[in-house]
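Deliverable D4.2, example record:
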Amino acid sequence: MEKPPPVDEAGYGDIRVLAKGTGIALPGQVLGRVLTFGGHVVLARLLGPDGFGLFALGWTLLKVGTLAAAFGLPIGVVRLGSIEWQKNPARFRGVLLQSLASSLAAGASLGAALFLAAPWLSTNIFHHAGLVPVLRLVAPGIALASTLEVAASATRITRRMQFAILAKEVIQPGLYVILPAAAWLLGWGLPGVVLAVLATYLAALLVAVFFLARLFPELTALASGVESAFGELLRLSLPVSLAATFATMTIWVDRLIIGAFRPAADVGVYQAVSQASTLFSVILAAISLVFGPMVAHLSAEHDRARMLELFRVSTKWTLYASLPVLMVVWFAARNVVGVLYGAAYASGAQALVLLTVGQILNAATGPTGPFLNMTGHHVTWFRLSGLALMTNIILGILFVSRWGMEGAAVATSISLGGLSLASLVAARGVLGAWPYDRRFLKVGAAVLAMAAYLGAIVVLVPSGGLPRLALMAGGVLVVFAAVVWALGFDGEDRTFFQVVRQVVGSRLGRQE
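Output generated by the structure prediction step:
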């Protein structure tokens, strides 16, 4: 087992570990998110708002069903599998096989339920008979996608990220850019597009299972026995799973509410702009992926000082990486929508502005969810995320019926922003954690400078399509870098940047 490096003489050992892990996780997650986003852009243009709206409803139910069918097993298989690997082969086989079988069975059951309920859902909830074949074709994908989540996560037992990244962030989204569009161009219609999406999950699942068989030869030695670990898997998985389900549903449920009250075309437009607003949350997700295990280790060692400093640095660098792009989206929402999706989706620009508010609050509060989860306060996170989901559903029903897409965006931003702020307050209350200090003054100065620059562009260049958007994006990065450089990098900033640059520039998965 690779041991974490000790704190170096400058006191930045934890920062080096965080930076190295982020340097590996971030490119893979960014690639996967960008490929999926690209696939949505292509489909939005090919299908048009109405067809893309039907597809979006099926896609959302697929993602929700996948999350429910996996019920935390991607977390449980890593935690329990790491303990049993190379110690108890029979129990290790039980962990892997029962995790895969459970997610497959749960996915198949939910898929069967969706298949049978498709006519009722389409007629009574979403009021569109054309949705029936989409939901019925999506149904088998729940089993494929949930099992892929578990299989890809299980490869991380080796403490190497590249296998999960290749299956989940390269192969599946890479095929997603190609196969659905090809199905449409071949004249197979919306059903062909949905079947092509299922094919992407099947291909990625087969690759993930192949990796498992190669990484763990003992997995196929069934004659040596299989020891059940199902009860322990559930004990580890369910508490965190429910919290993660609520938090993720808070982001997705708005599309289903729009589908219940508005035409399918509105769902299509909202799906497009909501994807644009959440694209940049990948930065927080990548940092959290590394931050979580590090905090769990420091919490177990009762090293509060290092744990709180890691929280501060993670929050600051999430802001550094997210704010420039989010501010461009805020100031140029109509330009972003027009360049990406075309004039047919222009009505979603205001919703994109409103959704960006929630994402800015999410970035500004840092990895509070993993911080609570990994320090033994997962019940607090569970309650807060459940409350956020209930808030989004109630506000969504009230607001969408009156204000359509903009109402859904307000409800989601209130719920997501409220969850972020409430989690931050909870982290301070139970852990005494507060990520902000004088070092964040540079962030405030950079925000003011970027806002001034973007406001000037809005006034001086009121239109211009892609050139204007490029001017805004490129210029804001220069302004941000200039302000931070002029005010001076902190020691941990230089260490973080240096290590991330080294890791990103090296071959993915290279071991030191």
